[in-house]
Amino acid sequence: MQTPSIAVLSTLAVSALILAAPLRAGVFNADFNDGQVPAGSLIFGNALVESGGGVGDTACLKLTKNANSQSGSIVIEDLDGYANVYGVRATFMARVGGGTSVPADGWSFCVGDLPDGT
Predict the structure, then answer these.
(1) pTM, whole model, 2 decimals?
(2) Alpha carbon of 55 to those of 5, 29, 94: distances in Å?
């Protein structure tokens, strides 16, 4: 039978290992190949998922098309249960082009709380 001090030390050692494990943040992956807006996200404005136009003519998210007065966005739900976020790692492929001879506008990648009414 273990003495109480050994049992307490064993519990503390296991607790320390659990707490020392790296915390993993939420993850969002999407390739749009199913032609659907990914679960946990919403699109707004002129944004749409199309079956062609992506890498190798795969499906892709198009925020806008080649037309005047277009705007579009995708909003991904909070992946960390409203916990503080201390870093973000994003990897994606983007294509900007195919527009007019006088290019305009652009795009952005933003992280943070959305203002009310968005």
Answers:
(1) 0.70
(2) 61, 16, 9
